[in-house]
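Lecture 7, part 2: worked example. A protein chain together with zinc ion.
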Amino acid sequence: MRKQIELIRIFNIPIKLDLSWFIIAAFISWTLALGYFPVKYPELGKVTYWIMGIASALLLFISVLLHELSHSLLAKQNNIPIRGITLFIFGGVAEMVKEPPTARSEIKMAVAGPVCSGILALFFFLLSILFTNFFPYLPIVGILKYCFFVNLVLMIFNLLPGFPLDGGRILRAVIWNYSGDIKKATYTASRIGASMGIFLIVWGFFNIFKGNFIGGLWMAFIGIFLKSAAEAGYQQIVTGKLLHGIKISEIMTRNLVTIEDSLPIDKLVNEYFLKYRYNNYPVICKGVFVGIVSIHDVKQIPRREWNTVTAGKIVDSTIVDSCLSPDDDATQAIATMSGKGLGRIPVLDNGKLAGIVSQRDIIHILQHKSALSV
Ligand SMILES: [Zn+2]
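Predicted complex, written out as C-alpha coordinates:
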Protein backbone atom coordinates (compact mmCIF):
# COMPACT_ATOMS: atom_id res chain seq x y z
CA MET A 1 0.00 0.00 0.00
CA ARG A 2 1.26 3.50 -0.82
CA LYS A 3 2.01 5.68 2.19
CA GLN A 4 0.76 9.22 1.79
CA ILE A 5 0.32 12.21 4.08
CA GLU A 6 -2.39 14.78 3.49
CA LEU A 7 -0.82 18.24 3.80
CA ILE A 8 -3.54 20.82 3.10
CA ARG A 9 -6.62 21.40 0.97
CA ILE A 10 -6.52 24.06 -1.76
CA PHE A 11 -9.83 24.86 -3.50
CA ASN A 12 -11.13 21.78 -1.72
CA ILE A 13 -8.53 19.57 -3.46
CA PRO A 14 -6.54 17.48 -0.99
CA ILE A 15 -2.78 17.85 -1.50
CA LYS A 16 -1.02 14.64 -0.52
CA LEU A 17 2.64 13.87 -0.12
CA ASP A 18 3.95 10.45 -1.04
CA LEU A 19 6.65 9.31 1.38
CA SER A 20 9.05 8.81 -1.53
CA TRP A 21 9.02 12.59 -1.87
CA PHE A 22 11.15 12.98 1.28
CA ILE A 23 13.84 10.75 -0.19
CA ILE A 24 13.88 12.70 -3.44
CA ALA A 25 13.80 16.10 -1.66
CA ALA A 26 16.84 15.04 0.37
CA PHE A 27 18.55 13.79 -2.79
CA ILE A 28 17.86 17.05 -4.66
CA SER A 29 19.12 19.18 -1.75
CA TRP A 30 22.21 16.99 -1.51
CA THR A 31 23.11 17.14 -5.22
CA LEU A 32 22.55 20.91 -5.26
CA ALA A 33 24.53 21.57 -2.05
CA LEU A 34 27.48 19.36 -2.99
CA GLY A 35 27.50 19.58 -6.79
CA TYR A 36 25.52 22.24 -8.58
CA PHE A 37 25.93 25.34 -6.36
CA PRO A 38 29.63 24.86 -5.41
CA VAL A 39 30.49 24.56 -9.13
CA LYS A 40 28.44 27.63 -10.12
CA TYR A 41 29.34 29.82 -7.16
CA PRO A 42 32.74 28.61 -5.80
CA GLU A 43 33.15 31.60 -3.46
CA LEU A 44 30.39 30.63 -0.99
CA GLY A 45 30.56 28.50 2.16
CA LYS A 46 29.41 24.94 2.91
CA VAL A 47 26.46 25.95 5.14
CA THR A 48 25.27 28.46 2.53
CA TYR A 49 25.27 25.72 -0.13
CA TRP A 50 23.08 23.54 2.08
CA ILE A 51 20.64 26.39 2.82
CA MET A 52 20.49 27.14 -0.91
CA GLY A 53 19.96 23.44 -1.69
CA ILE A 54 17.11 23.00 0.79
CA ALA A 55 15.43 26.30 -0.21
CA SER A 56 15.65 25.33 -3.89
CA ALA A 57 14.16 21.88 -3.22
CA LEU A 58 11.23 23.53 -1.39
CA LEU A 59 10.68 26.05 -4.19
CA LEU A 60 10.81 23.21 -6.72
CA PHE A 61 8.14 21.46 -4.65
CA ILE A 62 5.93 24.57 -4.74
CA SER A 63 6.53 24.94 -8.49
CA VAL A 64 5.43 21.34 -9.15
CA LEU A 65 2.42 21.83 -6.88
CA LEU A 66 1.34 24.95 -8.80
CA HIS A 67 1.78 23.09 -12.09
CA GLU A 68 -0.50 20.27 -10.92
CA LEU A 69 -2.95 22.68 -9.32
CA SER A 70 -3.44 24.50 -12.63
CA HIS A 71 -4.29 21.16 -14.30
CA SER A 72 -6.76 20.46 -11.50
CA LEU A 73 -8.47 23.83 -11.68
CA LEU A 74 -9.03 23.45 -15.43
CA ALA A 75 -10.33 19.92 -14.79
CA LYS A 76 -12.81 21.26 -12.25
CA GLN A 77 -13.92 23.89 -14.75
CA ASN A 78 -14.63 21.05 -17.20
CA ASN A 79 -16.60 19.15 -14.54
CA ILE A 80 -14.01 16.45 -14.03
CA PRO A 81 -13.75 15.88 -10.28
CA ILE A 82 -10.22 15.66 -8.85
CA ARG A 83 -9.66 13.15 -6.08
CA GLY A 84 -6.43 14.81 -5.01
CA ILE A 85 -2.94 15.83 -6.00
CA THR A 86 -0.12 13.55 -4.94
CA LEU A 87 3.41 14.85 -4.99
CA PHE A 88 5.76 11.95 -5.30
CA ILE A 89 9.14 10.94 -6.57
CA PHE A 90 9.25 12.66 -9.98
CA GLY A 91 6.87 15.55 -9.57
CA GLY A 92 3.14 15.41 -9.16
CA VAL A 93 0.04 13.64 -10.31
CA ALA A 94 -3.44 15.09 -10.33
CA GLU A 95 -5.81 12.17 -9.94
CA MET A 96 -8.80 12.64 -12.18
CA VAL A 97 -11.80 10.54 -11.28
CA LYS A 98 -12.61 9.98 -14.96
CA GLU A 99 -11.08 10.71 -18.34
CA PRO A 100 -11.88 14.07 -19.99
CA PRO A 101 -15.19 13.97 -21.92
CA THR A 102 -13.93 15.66 -25.09
CA ALA A 103 -10.67 16.24 -26.93
CA ARG A 104 -11.13 19.99 -26.48
CA SER A 105 -11.33 19.79 -22.66
CA GLU A 106 -8.31 17.44 -22.65
CA ILE A 107 -6.22 20.01 -24.54
CA LYS A 108 -7.23 22.85 -22.20
CA MET A 109 -6.38 20.78 -19.13
CA ALA A 110 -3.08 19.49 -20.52
CA VAL A 111 -1.88 22.93 -21.65
CA ALA A 112 -2.59 24.53 -18.25
CA GLY A 113 0.41 22.86 -16.54
CA PRO A 114 3.18 23.87 -18.96
CA VAL A 115 1.68 27.38 -19.23
CA CYS A 116 1.90 27.67 -15.44
CA SER A 117 5.53 26.44 -15.43
CA GLY A 118 6.33 28.92 -18.22
CA ILE A 119 4.86 31.80 -16.22
CA LEU A 120 6.81 30.68 -13.14
CA ALA A 121 10.03 30.51 -15.18
CA LEU A 122 9.43 34.06 -16.39
CA PHE A 123 8.61 35.18 -12.85
CA PHE A 124 11.85 33.74 -11.40
CA PHE A 125 13.85 35.09 -14.36
CA LEU A 126 12.57 38.65 -13.80
CA LEU A 127 13.07 38.32 -10.05
CA SER A 128 16.69 37.17 -10.55
CA ILE A 129 17.38 40.21 -12.78
CA LEU A 130 15.78 42.47 -10.18
CA PHE A 131 17.96 41.02 -7.39
CA THR A 132 21.13 41.06 -9.53
CA ASN A 133 20.69 44.79 -10.19
CA PHE A 134 19.32 46.10 -6.90
CA PHE A 135 20.23 43.54 -4.24
CA PRO A 136 23.10 41.43 -5.56
CA TYR A 137 23.19 38.90 -2.72
CA LEU A 138 24.66 35.81 -4.43
CA PRO A 139 22.84 32.98 -2.56
CA ILE A 140 19.40 34.46 -3.35
CA VAL A 141 20.32 35.19 -6.95
CA GLY A 142 21.61 31.60 -7.23
CA ILE A 143 18.34 30.13 -5.89
CA LEU A 144 16.24 32.33 -8.21
CA LYS A 145 18.32 31.38 -11.26
CA TYR A 146 17.98 27.70 -10.36
CA CYS A 147 14.18 28.09 -10.02
CA PHE A 148 14.04 29.79 -13.43
CA PHE A 149 16.02 26.93 -14.94
CA VAL A 150 14.05 24.16 -13.25
CA ASN A 151 10.66 25.61 -14.23
CA LEU A 152 11.87 25.95 -17.81
CA VAL A 153 12.89 22.27 -17.72
CA LEU A 154 9.51 21.34 -16.21
CA MET A 155 7.74 23.17 -19.04
CA ILE A 156 9.85 21.67 -21.85
CA PHE A 157 9.95 18.12 -20.44
CA ASN A 158 6.19 18.06 -19.90
CA LEU A 159 5.56 19.28 -23.45
CA LEU A 160 7.36 16.24 -24.96
CA PRO A 161 4.73 14.40 -27.01
CA GLY A 162 4.67 11.09 -25.05
CA PHE A 163 1.60 10.04 -23.05
CA PRO A 164 1.06 10.50 -20.06
CA LEU A 165 3.13 13.69 -20.18
CA ASP A 166 1.14 16.86 -20.92
CA GLY A 167 2.51 17.01 -24.48
CA GLY A 168 1.44 13.39 -24.97
CA ARG A 169 -2.05 14.27 -23.73
CA ILE A 170 -2.21 17.12 -26.24
CA LEU A 171 -1.06 14.78 -29.03
CA ARG A 172 -3.65 12.21 -27.93
CA ALA A 173 -6.41 14.83 -27.97
CA VAL A 174 -5.42 15.96 -31.49
CA ILE A 175 -5.48 12.37 -32.83
CA TRP A 176 -8.68 11.70 -30.89
CA ASN A 177 -10.25 14.79 -32.46
CA TYR A 178 -9.41 13.61 -35.99
CA SER A 179 -10.07 9.89 -35.63
CA GLY A 180 -12.86 9.98 -33.04
CA ASP A 181 -11.24 6.93 -31.41
CA ILE A 182 -9.77 7.57 -27.93
CA LYS A 183 -8.37 4.05 -27.73
CA LYS A 184 -6.36 4.39 -30.95
CA ALA A 185 -5.24 7.89 -29.97
CA THR A 186 -4.06 6.70 -26.53
CA TYR A 187 -2.28 3.75 -28.14
CA THR A 188 -0.24 5.99 -30.46
CA ALA A 189 0.56 8.61 -27.81
CA SER A 190 1.53 6.03 -25.18
CA ARG A 191 3.74 4.12 -27.66
CA ILE A 192 5.67 7.36 -28.16
CA GLY A 193 5.76 7.84 -24.36
CA ALA A 194 7.12 4.31 -23.81
CA SER A 195 9.72 4.76 -26.58
CA MET A 196 10.86 8.02 -25.01
CA GLY A 197 11.13 6.19 -21.68
CA ILE A 198 13.37 3.51 -23.25
CA PHE A 199 15.48 6.19 -24.91
CA LEU A 200 15.96 7.97 -21.56
CA ILE A 201 16.96 4.71 -19.84
CA VAL A 202 19.57 3.94 -22.53
CA TRP A 203 20.84 7.51 -22.59
CA GLY A 204 20.95 7.54 -18.77
CA PHE A 205 23.11 4.39 -18.65
CA PHE A 206 25.34 5.79 -21.38
CA ASN A 207 25.85 8.88 -19.19
CA ILE A 208 26.57 6.74 -16.12
CA PHE A 209 29.32 4.86 -18.01
CA LYS A 210 30.70 8.14 -19.29
CA GLY A 211 31.14 9.29 -15.68
CA ASN A 212 28.08 11.55 -15.30
CA PHE A 213 26.72 9.30 -12.57
CA ILE A 214 24.02 11.47 -10.95
CA GLY A 215 22.71 12.99 -14.18
CA GLY A 216 22.59 9.57 -15.79
CA LEU A 217 20.82 8.02 -12.82
CA TRP A 218 18.16 10.75 -12.97
CA MET A 219 17.57 10.14 -16.67
CA ALA A 220 17.32 6.38 -16.19
CA PHE A 221 14.87 6.82 -13.28
CA ILE A 222 12.67 9.21 -15.22
CA GLY A 223 12.83 6.85 -18.21
CA ILE A 224 11.66 3.87 -16.14
CA PHE A 225 8.85 5.95 -14.66
CA LEU A 226 7.75 7.27 -18.05
CA LYS A 227 7.77 3.84 -19.70
CA SER A 228 5.65 2.18 -17.00
CA ALA A 229 3.25 5.14 -16.77
CA ALA A 230 2.77 5.12 -20.55
CA GLU A 231 1.96 1.40 -20.55
CA ALA A 232 -0.34 1.68 -17.53
CA GLY A 233 -2.15 4.65 -19.10
CA TYR A 234 -2.98 2.64 -22.20
CA GLN A 235 -4.09 -0.40 -20.21
CA GLN A 236 -6.37 1.83 -18.17
CA ILE A 237 -8.13 3.13 -21.29
CA VAL A 238 -8.56 -0.36 -22.73
CA THR A 239 -9.87 -1.95 -19.53
CA GLY A 240 -11.97 1.14 -18.80
CA LYS A 241 -13.64 0.80 -22.21
CA LEU A 242 -14.27 -2.92 -21.78
CA LEU A 243 -15.62 -2.59 -18.24
CA HIS A 244 -17.66 0.55 -18.81
CA GLY A 245 -21.29 0.06 -17.82
CA ILE A 246 -20.74 -3.26 -16.02
CA LYS A 247 -21.98 -3.26 -12.45
CA ILE A 248 -20.10 -4.86 -9.55
CA SER A 249 -23.19 -7.00 -8.86
CA GLU A 250 -22.74 -8.66 -12.28
CA ILE A 251 -19.19 -9.86 -11.66
CA MET A 252 -18.88 -10.41 -7.89
CA THR A 253 -18.72 -13.83 -6.26
CA ARG A 254 -21.85 -14.29 -4.15
CA ASN A 255 -21.70 -17.61 -2.29
CA LEU A 256 -19.09 -16.79 0.31
CA VAL A 257 -17.86 -18.87 3.19
CA THR A 258 -18.05 -16.44 6.11
CA ILE A 259 -17.19 -16.90 9.78
CA GLU A 260 -18.61 -15.50 13.01
CA ASP A 261 -16.39 -13.22 15.09
CA SER A 262 -16.91 -15.47 18.14
CA LEU A 263 -15.26 -18.47 16.45
CA PRO A 264 -12.06 -19.63 18.25
CA ILE A 265 -8.92 -19.84 16.13
CA ASP A 266 -8.45 -23.61 16.49
CA LYS A 267 -11.89 -24.15 14.95
CA LEU A 268 -11.14 -21.53 12.32
CA VAL A 269 -8.02 -23.46 11.31
CA ASN A 270 -9.52 -26.95 11.37
CA GLU A 271 -12.98 -26.25 10.00
CA TYR A 272 -12.14 -23.49 7.53
CA PHE A 273 -8.51 -23.02 6.53
CA LEU A 274 -7.84 -26.77 6.25
CA LYS A 275 -11.26 -27.61 4.83
CA TYR A 276 -11.95 -24.93 2.20
CA ARG A 277 -8.36 -23.88 1.50
CA TYR A 278 -9.15 -20.18 0.97
CA ASN A 279 -6.44 -17.81 2.21
CA ASN A 280 -8.85 -15.49 3.98
CA TYR A 281 -12.43 -15.28 5.21
CA PRO A 282 -14.89 -12.43 5.76
CA VAL A 283 -15.84 -12.05 9.44
CA ILE A 284 -19.41 -11.28 10.51
CA CYS A 285 -20.45 -9.81 13.86
CA LYS A 286 -24.21 -9.77 14.57
CA GLY A 287 -24.94 -9.84 10.83
CA VAL A 288 -22.57 -6.97 10.04
CA PHE A 289 -19.34 -7.36 8.06
CA VAL A 290 -16.38 -6.34 10.27
CA GLY A 291 -13.31 -7.34 8.27
CA ILE A 292 -11.17 -10.14 6.89
CA VAL A 293 -9.13 -12.74 8.70
CA SER A 294 -6.18 -14.34 6.91
CA ILE A 295 -3.65 -17.09 7.62
CA HIS A 296 -1.15 -14.32 8.26
CA ASP A 297 -3.32 -12.97 11.14
CA VAL A 298 -3.61 -16.48 12.63
CA LYS A 299 0.18 -16.94 12.59
CA GLN A 300 0.60 -13.92 14.90
CA ILE A 301 -1.08 -15.82 17.77
CA PRO A 302 0.87 -18.56 19.67
CA ARG A 303 -0.59 -22.02 19.11
CA ARG A 304 -1.38 -22.60 22.82
CA GLU A 305 -3.82 -19.64 22.73
CA TRP A 306 -5.73 -20.90 19.69
CA ASN A 307 -8.60 -22.31 21.75
CA THR A 308 -9.19 -19.05 23.68
CA VAL A 309 -8.57 -16.26 21.15
CA THR A 310 -11.49 -15.65 18.75
CA ALA A 311 -11.56 -14.53 15.12
CA GLY A 312 -12.99 -11.18 16.24
CA LYS A 313 -9.73 -10.49 18.12
CA ILE A 314 -7.46 -10.90 15.09
CA VAL A 315 -9.74 -9.57 12.34
CA ASP A 316 -8.23 -6.94 10.03
CA SER A 317 -10.90 -4.27 9.70
CA THR A 318 -8.93 -1.72 7.62
CA ILE A 319 -10.62 -3.06 4.48
CA VAL A 320 -14.06 -1.88 5.62
CA ASP A 321 -13.30 1.66 4.34
CA SER A 322 -12.55 0.35 0.84
CA CYS A 323 -15.74 -1.69 0.36
CA LEU A 324 -17.77 -1.31 -2.82
CA SER A 325 -21.51 -1.29 -3.41
CA PRO A 326 -23.29 -3.65 -5.87
CA ASP A 327 -24.33 -0.66 -8.02
CA ASP A 328 -20.77 0.66 -8.41
CA ASP A 329 -19.15 0.54 -11.82
CA ALA A 330 -16.60 -2.24 -12.37
CA THR A 331 -13.97 0.38 -13.25
CA GLN A 332 -14.27 1.55 -9.64
CA ALA A 333 -13.08 -1.90 -8.50
CA ILE A 334 -9.91 -1.57 -10.59
CA ALA A 335 -9.27 1.94 -9.28
CA THR A 336 -9.62 0.76 -5.66
CA MET A 337 -7.53 -2.38 -6.22
CA SER A 338 -4.64 -0.56 -7.86
CA GLY A 339 -4.90 2.48 -5.58
CA LYS A 340 -4.86 0.50 -2.35
CA GLY A 341 -2.98 -2.58 -3.49
CA LEU A 342 -5.85 -5.00 -2.76
CA GLY A 343 -6.52 -8.32 -4.48
CA ARG A 344 -10.11 -8.74 -3.25
CA ILE A 345 -12.69 -6.17 -2.21
CA PRO A 346 -15.85 -6.95 -0.21
CA VAL A 347 -19.15 -5.65 -1.60
CA LEU A 348 -21.62 -4.29 0.95
CA ASP A 349 -25.34 -3.81 0.43
CA ASN A 350 -26.67 -1.64 3.29
CA GLY A 351 -23.93 -2.85 5.63
CA LYS A 352 -24.58 -6.51 4.81
CA LEU A 353 -21.96 -8.50 2.94
CA ALA A 354 -23.36 -9.18 -0.54
CA GLY A 355 -20.23 -10.63 -2.16
CA ILE A 356 -16.59 -10.20 -2.95
CA VAL A 357 -15.03 -8.97 -6.16
CA SER A 358 -11.52 -10.22 -6.89
CA GLN A 359 -8.87 -9.55 -9.50
CA ARG A 360 -9.79 -12.96 -10.92
CA ASP A 361 -13.41 -11.86 -11.44
CA ILE A 362 -12.21 -8.82 -13.34
CA ILE A 363 -9.70 -10.71 -15.47
CA HIS A 364 -12.47 -13.21 -16.25
CA ILE A 365 -14.88 -10.60 -17.53
CA LEU A 366 -12.09 -8.87 -19.47
CA GLN A 367 -11.13 -12.16 -21.16
CA HIS A 368 -14.75 -12.80 -22.08
CA LYS A 369 -15.30 -9.34 -23.43
CA SER A 370 -12.07 -9.12 -25.40
CA ALA A 371 -12.66 -12.62 -26.83
CA LEU A 372 -16.07 -11.47 -28.03
CA SER A 373 -14.62 -8.08 -29.05
CA VAL A 374 -17.52 -6.12 -27.61
ZN1 LIG B 1 1.53 18.58 -16.23
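The longest strand covers residues 4-10. Residues 67, 71, 113, 158, 166 surround zinc ion (CB under 6 Å). Keep this in mind for problem set question 3.
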